[in-house]
Amino acid sequence: MSEKMEKPQVDIEAIMEEIREEVRKKGPYEPIPGLDDIPTSVLRKTDWTVSCAYPAEGGNPLKRLYTKLVSKAVRCALFPLTNRLTQIHEEMSLRMDEMTGMIEDQQKEIDDLYLRIEQLEKGK
User: Fold this and answer.
1) How many other CB atoms are there within 10 angstroms of residue 64's CB atom?
2) pLDDT at 104
3) How far, in Å, CA of 99 to CA of 116, rounded?
4) pLDDT above 60 (res 45)
5) In sequence order, what are the residues at sequence separation of 6 or more whose Cβ sits closer than 8 angstroms to the Cβ of residue 68?
6) Residues 64, 55 contacting (CB under 8 angstroms)
């Protein structure tokens, strides 16, 4: 009863070799871009628009009237929420910038204290 159950050994190198072989079989692949390579300041209309909130022009008049009514209803519901989310994101960004400044100040203070300790130890 006191026997310990042995955990099965996992051969990571064998698994990695299988994965590499599959990649070689499937041919070249496009590497995933790093997060630093993705522009964040560029917003495209398709990134934030809701198709039913901005109906297309033309087509059946009844369908246009229906989509216009639905669009106004959706705007009434979505726009206050999106405005509030935008405010929250701006506030979070501001607070993160403040925290970054505080961390930099604290790091400078720590560096100054280390320098002072070194000077005091040299003076002994």
Assistant:
1) 14
2) 93
3) 25
4) no
5) 55
6) yes
Which among 68, 66, 42, 44 is positioned nearest to 54, based on CA atoms? 68
Q: Which helix (H) or strand (E) holds 26?
A: helix 12-26
Give the C-alpha separation, 54 to 73, whole Å: 12
Collapsing DSSP to helix, strand or coil, 7 comes out as coil
Provide the CB-side half-sphere exposure for 66 (13 A, CA): 5
Tell me the two tokens of residue 64.
Answer: 């246009």
CA distances (Å), 80 to each of 43, 52, 86, 89, 94, in order?
20, 16, 10, 14, 21
Q: What's residue 107's pLDDT?
A: 94
1 DSSP assignment: -
Q: Which amino acid is at 32?
A: I
Q: Is the pLDDT of residue 3 over 90?
A: no
More reliable by pLDDT, 77 or 57: 77
Cβ-contact 68, 57 below 8 angstroms: no
Three-state secondary-structure class, residue 85: helix
Asked whether residue 110 carries a pLDDT value surpassing 90, the answer given is yes
